[in-house]
Amino acid sequence: MTFVQVIDCKTSRADELNRLMDAWVEATQGKRTATHSIVGRDRADSTHVVEIVEFPSYEEAMQNSNLPETDRIFREMVALCDGEPSFTDLDVMRDEQLNKIVVRSFFEDVINGKNVDAADAICTSDYREHDPSLSSYDVGLEQAKAENQEIMAAFDPVATVESMVAEGDMVCVRASFKGRHVGAYQGMEATDREVSGTAHATFRCLGGKIAESWWNFDDLGLLKQLGMVEG
Predict the structure, then answer these.
(1) Rounded CA separation 84/51 (Å)
(2) pTM more than 0.70
(3) Least packed by Cβ within 10 Å: which of 56, 88, 93, 199?
(4) Residues 6+ apart with CB under 8 A from 61
C-alpha cells in the first residue's frame, strides 16, 4: 500500500530549507526509497512550509528513514525550523491521477465508443492534434474529428491502453489496436483484411480536459498489412 508522509514546519529560512532538500536528493541518490517529493509554501503565511513525500509502502519509508543521510538531513532541517516539525503518516486509500482519467476516457469514449463527438466534452475548444497521418500535422478539434471519423469508419478499430505515465500536465500512452479494413482508406477500397498495430500518444491536459495531443502510429506496418507496400 502506498504510504505518504507529510512534514509540516514553520521557518523563516524557506530558501535554505529548499536547498537542503536538494542536498538530500543528491546524497540519497541510488539509496532512497521515496518515489515523489513536493515542497510547498503557504500563500497566506510564508513561514509555513509543508513537504509531502511518497513511498511505495510504509516499510520502504522506514528503510528510507534509517539511511544515515536522511538522519543527518533531518537534524539540519530541524535547525532551520522555528520549533520541531510535525509529521503525519498516511496510508493512501485512493490515488486518482485525474489527467489519466480524461485521457483514458478519450480512448474508451471516442475511439472504442466510435463517438467522435464525445471529444467535445473531453477536449478544450482550442484543442490541437498533431498526427503525421492526418492532412496536416496541426489540426483543430473539428478537423481532427472529421478525419478521425473517416479512419474509424475505414478500420472499425479497437484500442487497448497498454501503459500510461503521467507527469505534470502531460500523459504518455503506449497502445495497441486491432480492426478490419471495412471502408475506403487513402484511395484504397476496403479489403476486409484484419489489421493490428501499435501506437504512442502524448497528451497535454488543461483544466481537466485535453488541450493538445501528439500521435505516432505504425503506418508502414498498416500499409504492409493492406498490401499497399511490399513487406
Answers:
(1) 14
(2) yes
(3) 93
(4) 3, 5, 33, 34, 53, 55, 89
The string of pLDDT tens digits covering residues 54-76 is 999 999 999 988 888 888 888 89
Rounded to an integer, what distance in angstroms lies between the CA atom of residue 96 and that of residue 52?
A: 17
Q: Contact at 8 Å (CB) between 99 and 211?
A: no
Q: What is the pLDDT of residues 175-214, one digit of tens each?
A: 999 999 999 887 888 898 999 999 999 999 998 999 999 9
* 73-76 long-range contacts, CB within 8 A, separation 24+: 73/20, 73/23, 73/24, 73/27, 76/20
Closest CA to 172 of 131, 203, 215: 203
Q: What is the pLDDT of residue 153?
A: 93
The set of cell numbers assigned to 225 is 498489412
Buried b (16+ CB within 10 A) or exposed e, 54-93: bbeeeebbeebeebebbeebeeebeebbeeebeeeeeeee
CB atoms within 10 A of CB 22: 9
Starting at the earlier edge strand, list the strands of the sheet with 48-55.
36-41, 48-55, 3-10, 86-91
Residue 209 CA neighbour count, 13 Å, CB half = 14
Owner of C-alpha cell 486509500: 93
230, exposed or middle or buried, with CB in 10 Å at 0-12, 13-18, 19+?
Answer: exposed
